[in-house]
Records
---
Amino acid sequence: MNEEFERWAGRAPAEVWSAPGRVNLIGEHTDYNGGFVLPFAIDRSTTVAVAPRSDGRLRCRSLQVADDTGWTKYVDGVVQALAAEAGIHVDGADVLVESDLPTGAGLSSSAALEVATVAALGAMAGTALDGAQLAAVAFRAETEFVGVPVGVMDQTVVARALPGHVLFLDTRSLGIEQVPFDPAAEGVNVVVIDSGVRHRVGDGRYAERRRECEAAAAAIGVEQLRDATLKQVEATPMDDTLRRRARHVVTEDSRVLQTVEQLRREAVAGIGAILLASHASLRDDFEVSCDALDRVVETAMEKGALGARMTGGGFGGSALALVPDGSLPNVLDAFGDAAFEVRPVGGVRRIDAMG
Ligand code: GLA
């Protein structure tokens, strides 16, 4: 990375930071309802090298993604959010990006880019931001300056994950608990399978789900669906679609709590059925799955997975499967290049500092 940077920019980078992608073990479409999520950072990442410029220009280049795809809006968004949220002014910079995280696969490549860029530019300006601050700046970059109405899950886990843990996040209080997660110790693997269908959180359907959740909360008379009970969801007069959306969110929150209970007992295998129930709820009640994702989940189960579900916003992207050692070759074979194993790693970190 340093050599590429020197070749491109004509000098050494001042800061090099790397941030991981994530998969969400469970707790989908709950993070904008004040609810619970349980993601972990994965061993695929985006690395950002930066050096200051004195001419006020922001010059960006990716070693993987073409200049004309619009990805630099994330860097622009980070520069604006650094000023607005943290009072850090970046006058100009060369920004070089390298990544082995697929984009549009539901693995938070945008959050990884944002958090690594916040950390690198912040450090370049002489400010060390802590995990909560990094997440806050990156979240503001995405929601306010890039303009995608996401929840807080992705930036938080990318900034704050610990190796060997899932991050149990209360998205209302932003309280976190790091829950040990060591599937390998129980002979279990987490496999991510790309459905091949590209999704975009900004395409309108995600925002539509948010509006439906707000309408359901208003019908029930609670501030957010996090505050509703299943009884209220079933008893309140409302449109059937809204009722199903609300039922997903309320039952998903309780599935997160059940999963945390299992993990506290070191019973990873015990969460398979909970993951499957989450997928069914996302497919039938929340309607954010798609045929390709449903097929991936079915095939993984046929090949011996303990449980599987779509992960991330949906409408495409990836699924995750919990696979015992004995079934791993069968599952990997069934999906070829689309499947890879992941393990829980730490959040954003400094790779190098020079110059
Ligand atoms: C996307 C968003 C997250 C979250 C998930 C659904 O990944 O970026 O904030 O809402 O969808 O759980």
---
Amino acid sequence: MPDNIPSHAGAATVPIEPAAAICDAEARIFLSLPDIVWCLDQDRRFRLCNSAFEAFTGTKQHELVGLCPPFDGIELPQFIRGFMAHSLKCQTERGEHAVRNPKTGSRIYFETTEIALERPDGTPDGYVCVAHDMTRRKSLELELTASRNELFQHAYYDPMTGLPNLRHLAGKLAEASSVASAGRSEGALLKIDLDRFSAINETVGRASGDQVLVEISKRLREESERHGDFLARLDGASFAIIVHHHAGRDDVARDCERLLTRISKPFFVEQKLLTVTASIGASCFPEHGDNAEQLLSQADSALLFAKRGGQNTWRIFDDSLIDEARERFELEADLRKSIESDNFTAHFQAKINLKTGEIAGVEALMRWNHPDMGSIPPGVFIPLAEQTGLIIPLGERVMTDACHFARNWNDGHRKPVRVSVNLSPRQVMLDDFIPLMKGCISRAGCRPEWLELEITENMLMSDPQRIDELMRGLAALGVAVSIDDFGTGYSAISSLTRYPIASLKIDRSFVHTRVDDGKPSAIARTIVAMARELGIKCVAEGIELAGEAEMLRKIGCDEGQGFLWHKPMPEEEFFRWVARYEKSAAAQ
Ligand code: C2E
Ligand code: MG
Ligand code: MG
């Protein structure tokens, strides 16, 4: 019999009962078991253990035999002490224990089993306790969990911002919308898209663009955490928030306003102060759908309409959007047909020298003669033409008209004036814009110095490299450039001095001021002062009243344009108006 199996003789303190006796073969098996095994009697006193037990605890069997907890002066891992101290709750008990290896200090995981023994007559006969080292299995399990977590992280989270991604959002949205359709809650999906993000990226560079996204994510995260909402980053500059528990459209509208305000607070990126705005499209559940796909698509439609409505704005989905989309689709089809059948003409409006009353220039403004609806103003079809790319053939059309007009006017031995044409962002981006212009000019027998192009401030700031090329090309050609709707966008003064700008056109919203208090708006005054400072001509648009013209003249504005003199009109009618205007001026 091996030494460490107590013999009857050695068990002076605790007599080993016959039932617990172990035969030689069994003893060898017991001793060589790799698991830690020990036995207790029915009063939980230590009876025997195997060599794995001794090796692990550093305690010999004879030191423990007959002892009950707390084993004063003997060091034992807590889980072994625990086994000895507590009685069994059921016949067999399993557990898991993590212990520090006393030698190496590393963590060891044991799976423990305690089995209650019975004699053949059914009386209790103590316990066998087994501790199986499952550290290897446990570490594999931990590795597996870690790689699963990593996979989950990749599949469900955006690596740049750490926010949940579209897939994650879709799952959450499906849950939320099914709860809502069971009548248990109401919520909304807000799709948020940063305005002009590609322009921001191009202006500040990709790395700073990423910083912008991180900053906006941080703001949105704070907002959604504060309100218990679920935030995700979809792609590029798009985010989405699932708002739980709203009480109707007014609540959603308030949420949109709150988010837009938070997003548009200026912040620094690499010492540059930036202001970013966004547009939001919202769909509500259960009102607009009971599944994620439908809610996402409706929020998308609402977002599209919000974008079209201008920047920094929101829209909630409703059925009228579908009608609007249908109308837009029909309008687009009509626009294509009208381009083929050439139902467009340019109308002309004079720019008047405010000091002398002379005609100082003319602006060409496009009109669509719709076969059923009559004359459609550019505010309706130019944005649509811009979005669909139809602005390219339309732009060429108006340019051709303007070139013919300029030749007709300036060839008539009059003092030459410039005819201005409005440009759209898409035309500015056109690679062959300069050759295209040259073609129009030469075909019409016009001269470049008789033309002027009107671009907006935002276009001036959109793509510095492209604008540089365009400006150089136009200067070489001899075509002038002016800035339209000045004061409504955001341009840096430096860009006004960098290029040879012929004039600044004050937007008409700053011109219509209260004539009765005799003061032009502060912004009109500032623009005039700035234009003078930079040596650029200043033109006020939309003058309707003689008082407005007088005020603008007094503060030093050079030219005016507006219904006070005449509405834009076709070429022939315009020439008749000119004849009348000059006749009455001569008579004065
Ligand atoms: P814009 O270039 O700022 O043109 C001035 C707009 O103000 C014109 O509107 C003109 O008819 C209107 N207007 C002129 N005087 C007065 C006035 O005294 N009172 C009021 N209330 N309005 C006045 P329109 O022709 O409807 O054009 C609107 C905008 O559409 C233009 O603004 C321009 O941005 C764009 N647009 C017009 N024609 C073209 C074009 O051929 N190409 C491009 N890309 N855009 C064009
Ligand atoms: Mg204009
Ligand atoms: Mg304008």
---
Amino acid sequence: MENEGALKKLAGWIDDGGMVVFTGAGISTESGLSDFRSPGGIWDRFNPAEFTLQKFTASAETRRNFWRFYHENWKVSRAAKPNRAHLAIAEMEKKGKVNAVVTQNIDELHQAAGSSPEKVLEIHGTMWKVGCLSCGDISPWEDFFQLLEEEKEIENCRLCGGLLKPATVSFGQSLPADVLNEAQHQCTQCKLLLCIGSSLAVYPAARLPEVAKNAGAKLAIVNREPTPLDRIADVAIKGEAGEIMNKVLSLLA
Ligand code: APR
């Protein structure tokens, strides 16, 4: 495999411990899920401008489109299984090499692969819960999936009458402050920030690898395409996340 030298360097840094893994949708494509910005990705099929919090709260039509999107997304994602990249990260945690997994993903495949839930920081929330935008009440997704299967309207919050929305962070919506604070803290403490499958195009998430680098960590990027942070990375490895992470796992001491 090309990148042999970079893979060995990365494996050595992982062996030293103190790693934070930062992941994006590209780590889940080998599980059959679309990413956002690859050709044919979600934002090729849906208009991101329609998926803002402002539009969701302002228009019943937008809310119907949101629920239609999640109805499809739940159907596809519930069948998805963790792939070799998720499994390698869980294995590295078992070896004591992972301080935290900061993920932009909402699919919970890291937890399904065996990463400890308390170490997985979901800075863009999760698709497997539905929350009230007013009182914060949280419900499981299944009830809403069933309503959508029966082509029923999604009612407002049964406790306060507020609007219900999948518990993911939409454009224009704040990231969960407690999760983001812990992610920032982990990035300032780590010795290695390993970024996998992200275009590093969306802020504030994409600032976190720079926070780690500026705090003295090594920065490693594994991605199919170049990213804006390749220029400051200690290693930038191009290719498929599953194959690369499997290879790196095999090179660990
Ligand atoms: N292996 C390696 N890289 C891959 C693979 C793969 N199997 N599949 C896709 N990629 C790369 C793509 O080339 C792309 O650069 O992963 C990256 C995914 O980038 P995006 O689709 O932009 O996803 P992400 O970076 O997670 O987006 C961030 O944007 O729309 C918001 O909230 C959404 O959390 C998401 C955020």
---
Amino acid sequence: MADTIFSKIIRKEIPADIVYEDDEFLAFRDIAPQAPVHILVIPKKEIPTVNDIEEEDANLIGRLFLVAKQLASKLGISESGYRLVINCNKDAGQAVYHLHLHLLGGRKFSWPPG
Ligand code: 5GP
């Protein structure tokens, strides 16, 4: 499976501003934040896109959202609100092919997305 920049962050080969880590997940600040809070929450398992999620990953993906929810609370944006985004493939603008959940908050977001 192709190695990505996020694999290197998981292996601590390149630095990142890590806000959470356990055996299965890593969360770190986006290098080009689009909001006052912009965290990437990733499973350490290399899953390139949402299209590659398998049945056996169902619990992992559920826990990915639990990590995001807990981080939103810890970072003080649970009540004000936040947006969770997963881009899949080119039309969505996916740039890194290691599944990641964007946790965005600290400002208002428009809907629908542009
Ligand atoms: P995507 O477009 O794939 O959903 O989002 C990839 C995100 O990863 C982008 O928001 C981009 O700013 C972020 N990113 C890319 N390379 C790095 C990096 O080396 N470190 C960090 N912290 N974020 C990165």
